[in-house]
Design goal:
Layout: H1 8-60, H2 63-112, E1 118-125, E2 129-136, H3 139-149, E3 159-166, E4 169-177, H4 198-202
Antiparallel strand pairs: 1-2, 2-4, 3-4
Length: 203
């Protein structure tokens, strides 16, 4: 006759419950250790960063370093000022070169209006004025020269300030102002547009 163990099913369940609790405990232990390890690592990192911050702060507050920083700032300011001066000199040089070119072209344009029997003894051109002196053997050539200068663009009213007769020649002085700094195109000074004839105006 076989013996019947009525407690056998309960013993199996107890064993299973025991195994589940064991694995759960192991899992909780692993999670706890992981969290603890993560916290420790973060704490170490924070301590290391704090040490670096303190080192940088010491360097930043070092009187020698602060003095060197001020020196570098002054050097940078001086360098910027020097750059501005260089740019100003370059701009001035360009302006002077341009004025020299324009002055030379005005001289060529003025000389081109000179009649054959009229000679220039001096010619001065400034950014504002033109001053001319010369001699001619007749007054008509002086008037013709002044009329020719009126066709040069950029010259204002032509004023013959003085005409003096010396023996067989006439010595004259002529003045004009530059209206504005004309732009030079193709290396020439432009001519003023000629006014229409009277009969064209009437038509």
């Amino acid at each position: 006759m076989n013996d019947i163990n009525f407690f056998k099913p309960y013993l199996g369940k107890k064993k299973i419950n025991f195994n589940n609790k064991f694995f759960l405990s192991i899992l909780l232990l692993i999670i706890s250790l992981s969290i603890l390890g993560y916290g420790v690592i973060n704490h170490l990192k924070i301590n290391k960063l704090s040490e670096k911050v303190l080192e940088f702060q010491k360097v930043a507050e070092n009187p020698k370093v602060l003095k060197r920083v001020e020196e570098i700032k002054l050097e940078e300011e001086e360098l910027n000022a020097f750059k501005l001066e260089v740019e100003s000199i370059r701009d001035l040089k360009k302006s002077l070169v341009k004025k020299d070119i324009i002055g030379s072209l005005y001289i060529d344009a003025i000389i081109s209006k000179r009649p054959n029997d009229l000679f220039l003894t001096s010619l001065y051109i400034t950014p504002e004025n033109v001053s001319i002196t010369g001699i001619s053997n007749n007054r008509l050539s002086i008037a013709e020269f002044a009329k020719g200068l009126e066709s040069i663009e950029g010259l204002g009213d032509i004023f013959v300030s003085n005409i003096v007769r010396e023996e067989t020649d006439y010595k004259f002085e002529l003045e004009s102002n530059l209206l504005e700094e004309e732009e030079v195109e193709d290396g020439t000074v432009k001519e003023k547009d000629e006014e229409p004839e009277e009969d064209e105006k009437e038509n």
